[in-house]
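Chain A, query sequence.
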Amino acid sequence: MSRQFIADIQPQQQVDEIFRIVDRQLRANRQGNHYLLLQLQDRTGTISGMRWNADERIVEKFPKGGFARIQAASQLHNGALQLIVSNMQNVEATSVNLEDFDAGTRVDIDTLWKELTEMVNRIECITLKQLCSSLIEDTHIASSLKQAPAGIKAHHAYPGGLLEHIVSLMKLSDLLSTHYGDLDRDIIVAGALVHDIGKLEEMSFGTELGYTDAGQLLGHLVQGVQMLDRHAAVLRASGAELDQTKILKLQHIVVSHHGCLEHGSPKVPMTLEALAFHYLDEMDAKLSSARGMIEADRTKDSWTPFNPTLGRKILKP
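Chain A, predicted structure.
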């Protein structure tokens, strides 16, 4: 019997299949009745599930990262498909085909990595080139960057999404610097590489997608600055003479790229490069989120449902 993948589920279907539990939370509705909110995953995507009449015992019984046989009915809710779960049973990892759950990236990792290294090699400033090269030559960083999403639920939320986002921004930064001649190309291109590098320490993205303790307590902006400091210290220890002003401007892009204090930046952009980069990052992230809204909408309507994060509907192409 063929597997019923998430991407193939249609509204008003009966579902009886094994999924990985990405997340589960016990919640209460307005009447105080508890239900279990699930995020279920296979290699074709994720889907939300709701199990009514739940309590803490069921939360403990089904850990994040584990597998469960889900019996449910599918339905549309605000344009998105969800499962109303009638029954669920634990399934041992040894009895499933793990290839059914290894989410394939949407992007060509090898091509993206080649483009990234070529952009770094074109950086002329010795300090910035040494620092960026140190980062991408770090085997742990390189390995993580090739599999990390850019976020858990927001933009580029799939394996390799962070690398795709970074390379896109490096290309955009390069183009922008040719139009605005007073922008320091090396600073803004290097800023594109490092702006979200702290996400590699903020998030855990193995079997269970979530946030590390350090990520919860510090956040990727602070962690990104720390990573730059560590790599700069190693370079200096090996005899490299680094321009601290260049590093400071690079770190400023990291801490300011969210654009305002309300969005988590401890500083607003205060250099031309940081200001320009903030808007590039905002554009790339928002377009990715809008595309995700269109892909997730299973209705035949011309418009997607209202998205509270973007604050709008999107007209489908």
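The longest strand covers residues 14-28. The radius of gyration is 22 Å.
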